[in-house]
Amino acid sequence: MQAILSAISEPVRRDALRILWDGQEHCVCELMAILGVTQSRMSRHMKTLKQAGLVVDRRDAQWVRYRRNPDLPAAYETVIDAVFAAEALEQEHVA
Amino acid sequence: MQAILSAISEPVRRDALRILWDGQEHCVCELMAILGVTQSRMSRHMKTLKQAGLVVDRRDAQWVRYRRNPDLPAAYETVIDAVFAAEALEQEHVA
DNA sequence: TCATCATATTCGATATTCCGCATATGCGTC
DNA sequence: GACGCATATGCGGAATATCGAATATGATGA
């Protein structure tokens, strides 16, 4: 839990995780482009998410494809879902 | 959400919040004693929890009584509940 | 083999967090 | 007002997090 909470308390990591939360694979280059951050920064943040067990990666030719960890225990999934749901409500209030 | 996640990603703050999550009032001296931390440390962590909107405080003679914020939006309550539930499972596995 | 693309990592600098110690503040009692 | 108790805060230092720039690694394809 500690590693997970530390991981998602950084905005870029939380944004990246939200993208990966769709269950599909996304390469680092795509995440960089969407989030507008540098390559080393993106790579390091993905490493943190991986070490927290939130995502898994796979080498595919010159790309590394990240995706949401399908084996994440349900209790942790519930936390992440709750965080994204709360943030979605925040966005509604802004809009 | 950012303030809440930062607040609960510190172990002492999370422990204090779990104590307050019972809905009752607890003074700083009690939290210090239970968690085994110094006074200034406890006080500062409580300030962080308060600024995140997770707890409220009340002056009662020489004590300050903290309690869980009863007006915390439901979406945030769900996050906290999920975190504590996940940690409870972790403890089970240890035991 | 060489060039290139995607990604990871090292390095050094900066920013932030967290702490203990000391001190200030607020409240009750004498 | 002086004292004691509970809490908050200012200060300086230690530890940690984060970053960009440069470089390393690994894969592809001419």
UniProtKB/TrEMBL annotation, chains A, B:
UniProt keywords, alphabetically: Arsenical resistance, DNA-binding, Transcription, Transcription regulation
InterPro entries attached to this UniProt entry: ArsR-like_HTH, HTH_ArsR_DNA-bd_dom, HTH_MetalResp_TranReg, WH-like_DNA-bd_sf, WH_DNA-bd_sf
Domain HTH arsR-type: 1-87
Gene3D superfamilies, per database record: Winged helix-like DNA-binding domain superfamily/Winged helix DNA-binding domain
One of the GO BP terms on file: response to arsenic-containing substance
Entry GO MF terms: DNA binding; DNA-binding transcription factor activity
Pfam families, per the entry: HTH_5
NCBIfam families registered for this protein in UniProt: HTH_metalloreg
PANTHER family, per the entry: ARSENICAL RESISTANCE OPERON REPRESSOR (PTHR33154:SF18), TRANSCRIPTIONAL REGULATOR, ARSR FAMILY (PTHR33154)
Protein name, as recorded: ArsR family transcriptional regulator
Organism from which the protein derives: Jhaorihella thermophila
